[in-house]
């Protein structure tokens, strides 16, 4: 535990808070600990938008279901040059 704390440039009590999942610990500390453990690539995967199933589902619901094209104006519109 002391070695991981030293490699992550943090204190042992903070490392213990990270292990408990304390939400008050900054994301930078979590990233430092993950780097010290060789898990930093997992953080990049967690932030990858294409792997976020919930976010993709929300985005799909926000898309319009049907799109209708407007017909050109037949009564002297801008295209009558």
Instruction: Please give the largest β-sheet.
Output: none
Task: Report the radius of gyration as a whole number of Å.
Answer: 26 Å
Per DSSP E runs of 2 or more residues, the count of β-strands stands at: 0
Task: List unreliable stretches of 5+ residues.
Answer: none
Q: Cα distance, first to last residue? A: 78 Å
Assign an overall shape: rod-shaped
- How do the SSEs run, as a string of H and E? HHHHH
Which range does the strand content fall in? under 5%
Mean pLDDT over the residues = 86
Helix content: 40-55%
Q: Quickly give the structural class.
A: mainly alpha
Compute the number of helices.
Answer: 5
The total domain count is 1
List the SSEs and their pairings.
Layout: H1 2-7, H2 12-20, H3 27-36, H4 40-46, H5 53-62
Helix pairs in contact: 3-4
Brief account:
This protein has 81 residues and is an all-alpha fold. The chain contains five helices and no strands.
């Amino acid at each position: 535990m002391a070695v991981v704390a030293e490699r992550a440039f943090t204190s042992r009590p903070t490392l213990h808070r990270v292990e408990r999942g304390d939400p008050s610990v900054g994301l930078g500390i979590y990233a430092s600990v993950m780097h010290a453990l060789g898990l930093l690539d997992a953080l990049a995967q967690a932030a990858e938008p294409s792997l976020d199933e919930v976010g993709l589902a929300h985005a799909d619901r926000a898309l319009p279901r049907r799109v209708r094209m407007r017909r050109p104006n037949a009564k002297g519109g801008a295209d009558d040059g």
